[in-house]
Amino acid sequence: MGRIVLENVTKSFGDAQVIPPLDLTIEDGEFAVFVGPSGCGKSTLLRLIAGLEETTSGRIVIDDNDATQVPPSKRGLAMVFQSYALYPHMSVRKNIAFPLRMAKMDQAAIDTKVEAAAKILNLADYLEQKPGQLSGGQRQRVAIGRAIVREPAAFLFDEPLSNLDAALRVGMRLEISELHNRLNTTMIYVTHDQVEAMTMADKIVVLRAGNIEQVGSPLDLYHTPRNIFVAGFIGSPKMNIIDGPEAEKQGATSIGFRPEHTDVSTTEGMWKGRVGVAEHLGSDTFIHVHDTGLADMITVRITGDIAVTHGDDIYLTPQMDKLHKFDADGLRMA
Amino acid sequence: MSNRTLPRLLQTPAVIMLLIWMLIPLSLTLYFSFIRYVLNNLRRPEWTTPSFSNWRGFGNYEFVLNSKDFLFAIQNSLLIVGSILFLTVILGVLIAVMINKAFPGQGIVRVLLISPFFVMPAVNAVLWVNMILDPVLGLQGLAVAGINDLIGSLQSAPGVGWFFSLWPEVKPISFRATQTSAYAVIIMVTWQWTPFAVLIFMTSLQSEDQQQKEAAVLDGAGTFSQFRFLTLPHLGRPIAIVVMIQAIFHLSLYAEIEIVSRGNGNKNLPYLIGEFANNNIGAASATGIFAVILANIVAIFLLRMIGKTLME
């Protein structure tokens, strides 16, 4: 079990309120991702759930029990830190066994559990080594192993992949998703990387300045962002946002269209512009278009290739059925 | 000319200087330890100049080994060094952990804690032995007199007087003449060197990884377990450093011993060397060689011990 409910939770450091009153429900077995730019309070929120920070007001309910005043070790949650936070002088075996040892479990049971966790995480060959002798990905797995053996109600991940190189990050992303499918335990994952959020989450929580901007499944957020902030944050490359007369023509203060929802032509179209940088990835081409009179730069994505070079004229037409309209407050118009 | 010759050539003067610095005193000590060499001898004036014709072989070493104070001095050296190390490391760790937390007046407390280290050893000894440990005039004398006065007045109190009459009169301890003078030295040097340990441990504690501690909290480790499994291993290396440096310094304690009791009932090897050096340079040199050997044994022993217990 691992249903986590936040009711009116706030957090202040001195006079500064970093989390204004906030409500959130994470269902049992769900993979929830907190995503937002740095300083948006997503890590603080995770630490509030873990109990590493005291809640200023409001309630944190874990499995129908009020856990607001429960000490971190009694909440039944396990956390994986950005720096892994392995104990440097202990072997991998002792690192993984540490929470069990603290729980005064008998040695035979500890050994069984550690061996089982090591097997799941492919660490069996490294059990006697010290963390300093392991690579980044292996350290990450040890940290996860230390969390798994406790059989927690929920796993908390605090930007666990940001210290890994790009290739390893993709691999670990898959491993964590795989782990979630196998264990079926609630996982809360904090990241600033929207790609991680999109690929792993059942439910994404987009945060800005401590406020929840939108909660939903990855595709919900992609197709129907609630406001301009979410629209700009989810999706890569970023959605193009245009204000002014072109938006008014559509009856909105701002309109947004995604780079992949734009038709491109060298002969005719709605807006004319000049090609800046064209990024050819083979499967796709990203073209940065300038001098449209709409925004500094508009990015479009086309599948395959198109014969344009720097300085060429180009015509853009957004796909009207996939146009996002926003009102003066930046909120989505129905 | 190989490309290593020039760097070596350029290093040579410094290396030669260092060798001279080290080798000349050591070889002179070795040389003097094998000859008869005294500062003043009316019957054998030729012994007052060092020369190979006064060769004595291992005679000086035999003389030192057979002198009544030698074994006592070694035993006392180890007692003093061992006790000081034990006390400073334990006190140092406890105080460092205590003041590592933020509290009002932290800055002042830290400066006050460090200040004993800036007192000169001789001044330290004079202050302690005269103003604090003196059985009559020092703080100890005053405290003992005060306690005795208190007990005296309680003895004449109605009702409970009979109970306090069973109490003996408290006697002050003299730290000057007997074996207790070694304890005086241990107390004052511990007072002086604990700040050094605190300083080293404090800097090390500040580099302790806070996320590790948070991870340990989530893993269910209490305050003591965090100290035992995270802080203490983290302090392993600084403890080794403190122990090594202090062992080197305290094996050569001299001023405190001189001032507390002038060596009465309390000698260590350096003090014995000093006594021999009043006249018998040969014997003093032989004792010096023994001191070098002792220092090496202590160093190796300590390193092994710390390495095993703390670094795993």
Question: What distinguishing features does this structure have?
Answer:
heterodimer, A: 334 residues, alpha+beta, Rossmann fold, OB fold (Dihydrolipoamide Acetyltransferase, E2P), 2 domains, 5-stranded antiparallel sheet, B: 312 residues, mainly alpha, 14 helices, 0% strand
Brief characterization of the structure:
The complex is a heterodimer of chains A (334) and B (312). Chain A has helices at 42-50, 92-102, 107-120, 136-148, 166-183, 194-200, 218-223, 228-233, 245-249; strands spanning 4-13, 16-26, 31-35, 57-62, 65-66, 77-80, 154-158, 186-191, 203-208, 211-216, 240-243, 254-257, 262-265, 271-280, 284-290, 298-303, 313-318, 324-326.
Q: Would you give an account of this structure?
A:
The complex is a heterodimer of chains A (334) and B (312). By secondary structure, chain A is an alpha+beta fold. Chain A has two domains: 4-231, Rossmann fold (3-Layer(aba) Sandwich); 242-326, OB fold (Dihydrolipoamide Acetyltransferase, E2P), CATH 2.40.50.140. Chain A is built from nine helices and 18 strands. Chain A has helices spanning 42-50, 92-102, 107-120, 136-148, 166-183, 194-200, 218-223, 228-233, 245-249; strands at 4-13, 16-26, 31-35, 57-62, 65-66, 77-80, 154-158, 186-191, 203-208, 211-216, 240-243, 254-257, 262-265, 271-280, 284-290, 298-303, 313-318, 324-326. In chain A, a hairpin with a 2-residue loop joins strand 4 and strand 5. Chain B is mostly helical. Among the domains of chain B are: 68-121 and 182-311, Orthogonal Bundle (MetI-like fold); 141-170, no CATH class. In chain B, helix 1 packs across helix 14, helix 3 (70-99) runs antiparallel to helix 11 and helix 11 (236-250) runs antiparallel to helix 14. The model of chain B has no long low-confidence stretch (mean pLDDT 87). The chains are: A alpha+beta (334), B mainly alpha (312). Chains A and B meet through strand 6 and helix 2 of A and helix 9 and helix 10 of B.
